Amino acid sequence: MFDLGRSFLAAVERRPRATAISDGPQRLSYEAWFDVIQRAARGLEDLGLAKGDHLVAAMQNRWQMATLHWACQFSGIVMTPLNWRCTAEDLAWTLENADARALAHDESVLEAVRAMGRPAVPCISVGEAAFPEALGFDDLCARAPAGTILRAGPEDWSLMLYTSGTTSRPKGVPRRHRAERAAALAHVAQNLYSQEECTLGVMPLYHTMGVRSLLSMALLDGHFVCVPRFDVEATLDAIERERISNLYLVPTLYHMLIEDPAFSAERVASVRKIGFAGAPMSDGLMRRVQDAFQPDLFVNHYGSSEVYTFTIDQAANRKPGSSGRSALNQRIRVVHLTSDSPTEVAAAGEEGQIIADLASDEAFEGYWRRPDADAKSIREGWYFTGDTGFFDEDGDLFVTGRVDDLIITGGENVSPAEIENVLSLHPAVEEVAVVGLPDEQWGKLITAFIKVREPITDEVLDAHCVSSGLARFKRPRRYQFIDQIPKSPVGKILRRVLVADYSDPQPAEQP
Asked: In what residue span(s) does the AMP-binding enzyme C-terminal domain sit (predicted)?
């Protein structure tokens, strides 16, 4: 079985002069990039990092960040990327938690690095250095190794992502080379990528979607186009300039692209395959994306950092809301909401918790130093995702939200996703998020937060919900019109922020 270093080396040998990566005016062929990657691997080893050590990297999607990722794959160092929006406290905690042997950063993290103070490990900088003794990226890559550095095998650790923290610290998710490669191969197959594909590298490289885009291109001699951070004009320019053939984004970024005045079908005409993941796409947005791109392939990918792929639907617009069926390397079940056993399977149409088989080639094996999290999520060889959903009569999975997001109102379980899909179809609604706010009478009051295209009243939205067939007990009791729906850096709705900001007593409507 190949490790990731050998996978990249195979691409170099197949098409050495094919464009591997670009970042604005910077363009490198596979042959030229391999030389820089090997130099970076030599530089990391000269700093004292060895196989199994962790490199914490906090950077935007620059070619240097991608280079460090691949250098780690050749040297056996564990790439440990961190959100470049991190605070000094986040940085210090991660360096300690991961037992990091070095820190790499760019100017987007400069303030946080300086506020943290000089770390006890070597510091590598791209652009302005936080401290005089930091090693510049060019200096890191100054010397070529005497021979090819190729130290990792398929069983070695490749990467450790940190999952998003809510009420506690994020959890480290260590993944082996074989799992990372299997996930990348599945990504190629499930998105029908072909030789010399060209993808947009804007999903952050601290996120599983960004990593998958990076790895999958190398498996088929493809071109990874760096966009350091999402910006509509920069993204459209990159698509036009590089004739990008596929997009793999969270729904929020599609929304931002097609709603911007700069968007036109002509500017994205090269894109024939689109995929989304990271969060559900509302029915309304799905229709607008289909109309805007008219793609040959429209993929809904449902997965996680822990187990890359759960399910795939390669015709997402065929049945809006469906996440399809188990992917190439996976088995999926839905069990009763309160069950701790993978054998207590829910009936078709019954909402429950989604679980995944950890025998998958793509699966992780447990969290980094978090036996408490392992005990909560791993049971009898199955990963309890914390997501809710159900299988319809055809066998397609519908993901309805998170167990923690379920709204229990008047003794009934209500999924926010169902209400959001209905409201998203109203032409005056641009974006919507539904949460349950504390209420003395109902326990939780179903509340819809709406970003509108044009003014609209509560009464019109309520009538729309009823006429759409939404059960009366599920319709919102309160509508709140806001300028922006709060989201995480990768586009997930931050329901907890809405709950915290708007949990004030409101009169509840009678059913």
From this structure: 418-492
